[in-house]
Amino acid sequence: MALGLALAAVIAGVVADAGAGLYVIAALLLSAAFLCGALNWRWSVYALLLYLPVSGIPIIALYPHTQPAVLAKDFLFVIPCYVGFIVEAILRRRKVFFPGAPTVMLVALALLVIVQAFNPVVPNVLVALIGVKVWLLYLPLIYVGYQLVQSREDLWRLLTLLAVPAVIPCVIGIVEALLIYSGHSSTVYSWYGSAASAATQGFFTYNLGTVGANLSRVPSTFSFVAQYYLYTIAMIAIVYAWLRGPLRDSAHVNWGWALLVLVTSASLLSGSRGAFFLAPGLLILIMILDRVGGVRLVILIGSLILAFVVALTLIGAQLGPTLSSAAADGRSNGGIVFSWIPQALHLTLTGLGTGLDTGAARYAFPGESTGTVYQIIGGVWLETWWVKVMIELGLPGLAVVIALLTNVIGGGLRRHFRIMDPQLRSVSAALLAVLIWNIVYAVKAQNMDLDPMDVYFWLFVGLLARVYALDRATTAAAQVRPRIRSTAVDRRDRASHPARVPVA
What we know:
This protein is mostly helical. The protein has 2 domains: 1-94, no CATH class; 99-476, no CATH class. The protein is built from 21 helices and 2 strands. It has helices spanning 2-17, 21-39, 41-51, 56-62, 67-92, 103-117, 125-136, 141-148, 152-163, 167-181, 185-190, 196-199, 225-244, 250-268, 275-290, 294-315, 319-347, 372-377, 385-416, 422-441, 453-496; strands spanning 205-207, 214-216. It has a two-stranded antiparallel ribbon with strand order 1-2. Strand 1 (205-207) and strand 2 form a beta hairpin. The protein starts with a helix and ends in an 8-residue tail after the last helix.
């Protein structure tokens, strides 16, 4: 392998001198990625999870020519992973599907998406292809996530791989917030160059109800602030699972609590007013599902208060006005969203076509003002994910999506409350809570279409099913061991006290 990489580097250098280096290097990278996936698809998954926290850096570096960087994770990690996953399943004759998997609903959704891609209302092939990619490319991660973890050690390793790298984007995000709120915003924006406006949503700010307390968008290592916010939300759940799972000694537990405060503070400082309700809401939901009480409840509440103090101190805001401002924002967005629902139903009952209201596809329209939905609604994009489902797939698509997510959450809850192992129950609570959070937040935004949540959501569905399977295996093993010991004791007793033979 090392010899092959060295030879590839030499060839790349020679061809670079000939002027075609960029294309050859890209081809070599793709070849290496597919080879890696074919040899061991787990490597591709691990590389993907390490890449996601910094995935915005190449996009910012290449702005405005961002297409190669946007597609990098798909061609370097996701598709090679699928290739290797399928090859291994065929060679080892391993079942891809697992008990409780929503396979029927996934197939129904895929068929609807593909059929709607040929809807004559869709303006061009590129819009349809982007829509298909956003809808379907990451759904197989359900099966990948289930097979990725085969033991508790695999699960602890994966949680560590997810949680520890969160330090980098969260620290960078908090440092950026510190600079912005101390009057050095130009320094932060200079790091993003020409991509600064796009990354910060046009340098958008919110007033938090206190004079001079303006909440600014902070993108950290992501190309858009919403991606960073969604990343911090996912990491709140993952860090909690990591803290309650593999961390046992007091020194590591203290680091775990510190990381939980860090990611929660980063979420509050990301620039979303809703974070002041939704980030704590996620933690509260995790605590309810995990049946947290006693000392752990006190520490969690203390961590949450500390995160609020850090965030509000940096912003220069007060708690009361901040929460009032966030509540007003929620009411405003809720009113807009629910006014969109009848508009979507008025537009179509059978669907207008795949990609037509997908955020990533809007740039593929011949001109934004010529987009069908954009034109009919009167110059706005319907950004809520649930309305997007109705616009693109109609009521049949909405029914399938509701059935799919009901299976995921309903089945997840049913299995969660049967888990006996406290460590695995904590992991299950964290994964289940972030899935529920996303479904609720989808009322406001197309969050499940955005990096990194498009990957995390479906991967976590598979992991959640595996956590339950691990608990069942642990419980079964615990029940077998006493029977074995009991049988061994019975044999020793019979050997020591042979049965008496009655005398005639």
